[in-house]
Amino acid sequence: RKFFAKISVFIQYGFRIKWKLLAFGLAFSLVGLALTFIIPKEYKSTFTAMSGGISNEFHREKINDLDFLIEEDNFSLLSEKLVLPIDVIEKINEIRYIEIKEYPIDSINLNFFFKVEVKVSDNSLFEILQPQIVSYLSDVDFYQRQMGVRRDRYNQLIKKLDTDIQELDSLRLVVANNQLPKGQAGGFVFGEPLNPIDMYQEGYKLFNEQLQLKASLENLVMIQVAKDFTVFRKPSFPKKSIFMSISFALGVLIGMIKYSKS
């Protein structure tokens, strides 16, 4: 009870000197606003990428390697990895891997999607950094060879389907023109009559398989960017509203302590 009684008295006293406290709060708010112009600005943005069938854990490790180099101020090695000049590298504050747990499209495999968050002191760098980070993640000899093998296999299957579709079209043309070879008794030399509907269905099936293979071939890249960096005009830190609010509250608290002692 004594504790709550003291709090009640403290609040009542605060109301009696509210104008003095307001002056303290406003004065500290101006200090907070001034700090936002003095403290170095930091800009933050993310891009979303899709891996070409490679485990995201591999990309997580590569991104973490970049961030460790930033923490160690090893700008020369970071410059080599991202193929960027030192003066640009020095403006990167953080590069972070973010796992995607939800995505609005149900059919997408979340295991292949991830985000890369970058913090820089100059928001004009985002357009330069994105392609270099993607190139860095894609530059792996082992996976490039695996991609080459898969690309060759897709091309061979597509070529085989092209031949099958052409042969089926030729046979379908023969059936349509009633040019099937017949025996002396007038029957077809084939084991059983050909059904034109079945031929059209088989042609559609082959064509659909070919489209799927071509789509897979086009998407056969190490990294695809699903969403680019968004370049924000205002910095993510320091935030004027947050600094001024905290400074105002701190000013009121200091004012209460000062006048309560006097």
Summarize the structure.
The chain is α+β, with helices and mostly antiparallel strands. It has helices spanning 2-16, 18-38, 56-71, 75-82, 86-89, 126-138, 141-176, 196-218, 240-261, and strands spanning 43-51, 92-99, 113-120, 223-227.
Question: How would you portray this structure in words?
Answer:
With 262 residues, this protein is α+β, with helices and mostly antiparallel strands. It has a 4-stranded antiparallel sheet with strand order 2-3-1-4, with helices on one face. Helix 2 packs antiparallel against helix 9. It is elongated and about 110 Å long. It starts with a helix and ends with a helix. About 3% of the residues have low confidence.
Side-by-side strand order of the widest sheet: 2-3-1-4
Characterize the overall form.
elongated
Give the SSE string. HHEHHHEEHHHEH
Radius of gyration from CA coordinates:
34 Å
Question: Kindly state the mean pLDDT as a whole number?
Answer: 78
Question: Unreliable stretches, pLDDT < 50, 5 or more residues?
Answer: 183-191
